[in-house]
Amino acid sequence: MTLGLETADYVIFLIYFVIVAVYGYWVYTHKGKQTADSKDFFLAEGSLTWWAIGASIIASNISAEQFIGMSGQAFQLGLAISVYELVGGFSLIIIAVYFLPMYIRNKIYTMPQFLQTRYDGRLATIMAVFWLFLYILVNLTSIIYLGALSLEKMTGFGFMSCAVFLTVFAVFITLGGMKVIGYTDVIQVICLVVGGLATTYLALDLLSDRVGTGAGVLEGLGLIRDRADSHLHMIFSEGQYQVHDGKGGFTDAYNQLPGLMMFVIGGQWIVNFNYFGCNQYITQRALGADLNTARNGLLFASFLKILMPFIVVLPGLAAYVLFQENADPAIVAGITEGGIVKPDNSYPVLLNLLPVGLKGLAFAALTAAIVASLAGKANSISTIYMLDIHRKFFNTSLTEKQTVWRGRVAIVVSFLIALAISPFLKNFGQGFEYIQEYTGFISPGILAIFLLGFFWKKATANGALAAALLSIPLSAYLKFNAPGIPFLNRMGLVFWACVMLQVVISLLESRGRDSPKAFAVDSSWFRVQRPFLLGAVVVSGLVLLVFLVFY
Predict the structure, then answer these.
(1) What is the pLDDT of residues 63-96, one digit of tens each?
(2) Which of 94, 215, 236, 333 is deepest in the core (most CB within 10 A)?
(3) Per-residue CA distances from 545 to 425, 538, 542 (Å)
(4) Please, are residues 360 and 8 in contact by the beta-carbon 8 Å criterion?
(5) Which residue spans within 501-540 are E strands per DSSP?
(6) Measured between alpha carbons, how far is 344 from 246 in angstroms, rounded to an integer?
């Protein structure tokens, strides 16, 4: 295994970098408004097409947490980790049909604005602060950490050097505003899909060469089936098998993917509905468009989403077989640190086995995914801070130009905070699990107040506030006092507790009357244009087919 990139790899990466930079500058100067308009900067209002919206959603979603973290969990758990992608693809359809009309027809541009409009300012402010902490301390930080970890393994440069490089690259993209992010994300998605599929192909071919007879990709797939049968189950039972925890020990696979209970109690649905439907840096792409354009964008994102297991899960499975078969001492040494098996190292180590040139393509694909995701998240952090906190509490008379300028300052500050914290994540073991678990402290309460706010006219502000405040302490209590409950099941239990609390308080407070701030439930779902409905059926069918084949 050759650590580092060769000249040809750097040339390929430089071509990618130049294309993104030049196209981003062209978009900045030729698309949309040329004045300092906050809605144009934060939302790219009216200027994103359906394909740009869909590509940008996936570019923000697919990042180091998938390439590195999810590939690591494929090494650890197997094919079952793709359930996040499959359920995510189906969830995007539901969100396009039910959630989007609520936002767009009520002119909602930020998630705190929805809470302000439907409930009151107290809840909007509390949740705006929560979201800022979550996006910076968990999402932005973890992407920088996992991205720098992978680049460190590929290039041989130090962790902080790689982290600074990714941060600076993302800052320049983000400062151009959502318009630049949205359109450059199209290039980023093309790059990550092409590069990701090429990496998968070469990983399977490598597996065939090192473990099999060298017959090619199909043999590589067969070797995964024959040598990693335990990694091909979609549903786990408690105590079925133990997996490396990334800290030097073992953990029950059921604790991370608790079988059918994650669907029955709802943990898997909570993760995806909250992430794609109540998440500023995902929905923000669609909020500036008309309903049909936004819906078609989400459908395109749904289609791209179900391609992701081929890009991020199969390489992890290939790395697992190579590791188990001890096919190359360099692979074992790269995945093991100080005698501890580190699943998150599997994808970067695999990339180092690629031939010169193709390693540069994979490097560009990984960088594209990381930078696009960082840019989208940082723009959303800035959006919430400026529109829901700064202009409401610190300076209510800001001009459009001042709002945009301070928004750019907020972007830089958020990146600096995340960059400073990122090295400390080395103590958390498995990166993707860290993201899901700690996001899950707040997501049950968020989803509860959004769903009841959408579809139950009697939901009151005090009930929603109580539900939001219950989510974190109840999650923390269950984590430390009932550690045997898998975190996805814990999320489900907390969600239903938040729902019950909000319902009880709302009924006592409203005495059966509808809230004066209730939204009219949109009934246009059965009048959705036929192309969208046909696409939704196709995507749903593909998801169901995968479950039936591998169950």
Answers:
(1) 766 777 788 888 888 888 888 888 888 888 888 8
(2) 236
(3) 37, 10, 5
(4) yes
(5) none
(6) 8
Number of H helices, E strands in the chain: 28, 4
Place of tokens 């692979």: 331
Tokens of 518: 């209730």
- Give the C-alpha distances (Å, rounded to integers) separating 329 from 82, 98, 322, 341, 513: 28, 52, 10, 14, 69
The CA distance from 501 to 5, in Å, is 56
Cα–Cα dist 232/230, whole Å: 6
What's the pTM value of the predicted model, to 2 decimals? 0.81
The Cα–Cα gap between 228 and 320 comes to 8
Contact 471, 134 (CB under 8 A): no
Q: What is the DSSP string of 345-387?
A: GHHHHHHTTSPTTHHHHHHHHHHHHHHHHHHHHHHHHHHHIII
The SS3 of residue 395 is: coil
Q: What is the distance between the alpha carbons of residues 513 and 290, in angstroms, rounded to a whole number?
A: 33
Q: Kindly report the three-state secondary structure assignment for every residue of 69-133.
A: HHHHHHHHCCHHHHHHHHHHHHHHHHHHHHHHHHHHHCCCCCHHHHHHHHCCHHHHHHHHHHHHH
Query: For 469-485, how does the pLDDT look when each residue is reduced to its tens digit (9 = 90+)?
Result: 899 899 989 888 988 88
Question: Residue 242 and residue 386: Cα distance in Å, rounded?
Answer: 46
The distance from CA 75 to its chain's CA centroid, rounded to whole angstroms, is: 19
Q: How are beta strands 242-244 and 250-252 bridged, if at all?
A: antiparallel
Whole-angstrom Cα Rg for the chain? 23
Reduce the DSSP state of residue 251 to 3 states and report it.
strand
Exposure class string for 75-96: b at 16+ Cβ within 10 A, else e: bbbbbbbbbbbbbbbbbbbbbb
User: Which of 64, 276, 66 has the alpha carbon at shortest distance from 167?
Assistant: 64
- CA 114 to CA 111: how far, in whole Å? 5
Condensed to tens digits (0 to 9), the pLDDT of residues 128-150 reads 888 888 888 878 888 888 788 77
pLDDT digits (tens, 9 = 90+) for 444-501: 999 999 999 988 888 999 999 999 989 989 998 988 898 888 888 888 899 999 999 9
Give the number of C-alpha atoms closer than 13 A to the C-alpha of residue 94, restricted to the C-beta side: 16
Q: Dihedral angle at the C-alpha atoms of 533, 534, 536, 541, nearest 10 degrees? A: 140
- CA atoms of 282 and 103, how far apart (whole Å): 13
Which of the four pLDDT bands, split at 50, 70 and 90, describes residue 551? very low
The whole-number pLDDT of residue 525 equals: 47
Q: Which two tokens stand for residue 388?
A: 């829901």
CB atoms closer than 10 angstroms to residue 239: 9
Which residues pair with residue 341 across a beta bridge? 336
Q: Residue 536 — very low, low, confident or very high, per pLDDT cuts 50/70/90?
A: low
For helices 178-211 and 358-384, give the axis angle rounded to 10 degrees.
140
How many residues in the chain? 551
Three-class secondary structure of residue 243 per DSSP: strand
